[in-house]
Amino acid sequence: MLNTKTAGTTTPVSQTPDHVAIKPQRMGFEFGEQVPRYWLNDNYLLSHMMNALSVLFPQGEQFFVDSVRQFRDQITDPKLKEEVRGFIGQEAMHSLEHDAMNQHVRDQGMPVEEMEKHLEVVLGIASKLPKRHQLAITCALEHMTAMMADMLLARDDVREDMHESMQPLWVWHAIEETEHKAVTYDVFQQVGGTYAERSFYLAFSTAALGVMATYFTTRMMLNDRKGFSLKDAGKGLWRMWGKNGTFSSLIPTWLEYFKPDFHPWDHDNSELIARFKEQIQAHIAPQYRSGNRRTLQ
After folding, report:
1. Residues 248, 269, 70, 24, Cα dihedral to 10°
2. Is residue 209 part of a domain?
3. What is the DSSP letter of 192?
4. 216 occurs within a structural domain
5. CA–CA separation, 175 vs 136, rounded Å?
6. What is the pTM of this model?
């Protein structure tokens, strides 16, 4: 049984750089006929895999928000309190934008509602865990999303694989995941989270995410049998897990989480935020350009 008692002294101060602002922004992305069915590298497997991840986001991010909200009254650092507000707001915006993408996936004949019901069951089970264990799951999944966000922003080839109609959504999401990548971790540290908890739940959450993403991807592929190509699937698997693959290249970063003194901002990639932030402003829908602060607070 993992130790759930508060351990020793905690670091009560946010470690997010002062020049990184965590503010929600509604984008108003639209997805229609301009989006090709296989929008990622013109590849059947890769496109369904990313569609599957999108289906996971709205409910998953609500779980993240709920796990942090349970500890808001224990946060004493004013800067971290404000960052939690920003985190909740950004996750709300992510849910709204991915809901729009998921409707597009649904319109292609994918069983999105059924997959969402299955995810609801899984997250319902997770929500019965001790509160700090739920927060540890959130920290682990935020580590994985931050890894993928960093890769997407840092690697031109990954962005260039995306059709121009989809690239803005994923770049915007990656920017905001980078901005708030340490918020849940800092909350976890402040409320006495232990090394055993965060290490165990990284392994646990990685396995759970892998199972759910594979299941969702397989369901979509079965619904799109006419597009199946063994050659295409092989290329997709190599792109993910081959030399310098999008997933295989993340393994060293994934392992860094197991360092006893790990912190998400040990790798300061804030220059990527600055590089892409201005570029993404051009994709804000006109009705949201004055800013939209709707949150799930």
Report:
1. -110
2. yes
3. T
4. yes
5. 23
6. 0.92
Angle, helix 78-107 to helix 167-179, in steps of 10 degrees: 160
CA quadruple 104, 110, 113, 114: dihedral, nearest 10:
-160
60, part of any domain: yes
How many structural domains compose the chain? Answer: 1
Q: If you search the block for the tokens 């496109």, which residue do you land on?
A: 47
pLDDT in tens, the chain (297 residues): 454 444 434 444 799 999 999 999 999 999 988 999 999 999 999 999 999 999 999 999 999 999 999 999 999 999 999 999 999 999 999 999 999 999 999 999 999 999 999 999 999 999 999 999 999 999 999 999 999 999 999 999 999 999 999 999 999 999 999 999 999 999 999 999 999 999 999 999 999 999 999 999 999 999 999 888 889 999 999 999 999 999 999 999 999 999 999 999 999 999 999 999 989 999 999 999 875 544 434
Domain region containing 132? 44-283
Other CB atoms within 10 A of residue 87 CB = 26
> For residue 250, what is the domain's CATH number?
1.10.620
Collapsed DSSP state (helix, strand, coil) of residue 212: helix
Q: Is residue 233 part of a domain?
A: yes
- Cα gap 34→31, rounded to integer Å: 7
Max alpha carbon distance in the chain (Å)? 58
Tell me the angle at which helices 195-222 and 112-126 cross, rounded to the nearest 10 degrees. 160
